[in-house]
Fold this sequence. Notes:
This protein has 15 helices and 22 strands. The protein starts with 7 loop residues before the first helix and ends in a 9-residue tail after the last helix. It is α+β, with helices and mostly antiparallel strands. The chain is elongated and about 140 Å long. The chain has a five-stranded antiparallel sheet. A five-stranded antiparallel sheet has the order 7-6-10-9-8. About 45% of the residues lie in helices and about 20% in strands.
Amino acid sequence: MPLLGGIRPPIAALCVLILALAGLTAKVLGPGKEAVAPKAVLSSQQYFAEDGAIALRASIDERVTDLERTTAALSAGRPVKAERILSDLGRTYQKWTGTTVLDLESGEVLAARGETIPLAWLDEDVLTGEHALTPRMVRLEAGDVRLMTMAVLDWKDRPQQLLIASSSLSVPAINLGPFRSMAVVAENGEVLATAGFEQAEALNSDQERQELAFLRKQMGRLADQAAVRTEQHPVRAKEPGSRGYPGVSGSLVGGDYNGRVATAGYASLSSADPEEKRSPAAGLGLTVVALMPVVQQQATDQGRELFGLAAAGVLVLLGLLAATVLWATVQRPLLRLFLESRRLARGDLTRPVTVPRWGEAARIGAALERLRGQLGGEPTASGDAPRRGIRIGGRGPLVLTAGLLLVWCVPVGLLLNRTDGSVSVPTTMVNDQRDRTDLITDRLRRALNEAQADLVSTSRLIGAEDGDAAGRLLEDTLAKHPRYQALYVVDADGRVTARAGGDPHAWARGEDLPLVRVSGHGGKEPVVQAGAPVPEGEGGTLVGEIRVEFLNSLLARPGLGEVRVVDSAGLTIAASDGFLAFEKLPRDSLTGLVRAAGVRVGAGPVENGLLIREGSGVTVAAAAPFSGGGVTADIGWTVVSWQDAERFQIAPYEREDRSVLAGMLGLAAIIFCLGWVHLVVVRPLRALATSAEKLADGDLKTVLYPRYQDEVGAVVRSLELLRQQAQAHRHNQARRSAEPRPHAGGR
């Protein structure tokens, strides 16, 4: 028989797959080696570091963009004194620690504000070449590191001037929570800035000071490891199938102290999209490291090892029983038919055919016995021999085998290790959901403040009497800022005097109305407007409509679930997934969480995290209202996020997923192997039984062609030989009956 044909290979494959699945079950359903920290906690630290890297990259890129945009706008107009430039820059943006205007021809400092910027680092390489005017990190005499951003002021018939802005390279101003610390790390592993460490003089005991020293030491050691790992290419650093963050990111585990182990996430600064142009911040080689001490995970469910072995043993027993059923009901009768048909084809007609008891094999055996009688001249074989066995086809054994294996697959996949609403979720996950939601809130608030600040900067370039020039300026601004869908200038009476982009919406006036607001109630999409008064416009206002898609893009973050922005009434303004304009939150518990977060505590509202248990499900939710500085501080918006705890990589859900996987693998083995048997044995055997009965009934004209080179094909070839023998036997009988008989006597 061929190696891959016939009944033996699928039965052998079924046995091998069952043994492999039993071994896998014994391994994955047991506890195995317990990790010092849950995978969900490590993933959460990685996500937090990615959020910090995104915030830092956006902050640095925004500084560069603001400076370049300001110098470009000033260079397009009339020359302005250096002191006026720095004064307007300081009023519009409060992000630089020091600014300086330098005459490039003479090297003279024309104006300076804030802290003194050293100029010894300025050389030809900084001002010319491929990397000219790119941001530089400069260390001051005091040891602090500053980020230097540069742009050129270029007026016609005047020497070029260099505008330099210095800013501290600090950790993004985000909520780190009570125990987390964060650091900005250079390419060589040097920690440039940290946040989250308590001061030694504020600690109450020597043990707290020792723990602080331990965390600082761990931050330095893990920062070195993170700097080495972020030197890899992002594609090579990612595991197959990973996605999300475009840069290099991951998690690290440090030492332990007093029952807590140091866990860290790291992420390199990278462009927002790999297809986009490399951002200035991405070229600085910085890495953000987030450190979090967590309680060391204790080993649980020690008896589960025996439980996994018991499940594997039951599977082996059921598999052996299923293989025995297939051998006794399919393989053995088929091999017997093969031997009997080959014996008859060789001409051995003396011994009766051993007819199987049931199924297609019984029908074929009965047909062979009738053919043997016809070829051997037995008068009773053609009419009295049983024509069919018990009416149970070859599918019966397959159904029985599938039932035996489903007895194991269904309970394991659907009933074993099932979770309910009592699953214990680490407190760290709830805190991280809250802190990351607050980070998204801060990111969104800063983006809206930047949008309004851009409008303020642009409004100062608009003249009240030149409408055409204002229109061209708005078109240029709209082309440079994809966050806007429309820009327009409205006068004191509400009439639009200049516009660019989409159709403008009404801009209401009032002293109590915020400069950033939402309108469009009842429409298909919320209209987010930001305004800035035009200084020379006699009551005019520059209005920019911010695209909702831009807000949605700021909300989408892996590992945070669904994120929405709601107004003070709890109506949706933007979301990471699809939404209807001004729809309510899907759960009353989320609405209550938003209201609780909006309650003023001390200086203002604070973020809240909540573990919601409803029925058999567990949901981690958080809400963070807008707070802090800028024109959006009192806008009344809240960012709310939620996700099912099933997405977390914690032990109960991992065991449930493994059980489901084991059941599905068993089901796949059943479908594959039994489907194989049905296709190569049962279905051809049914067709062969019909052909054999027709042959036994006298149909000697239909030629039997073997389609498979296996046991069934061998039986078909033997039947074809028997057909030819029966046809020759009938032809000989007909010829003898036609010959004249000789007379019995003579004359």
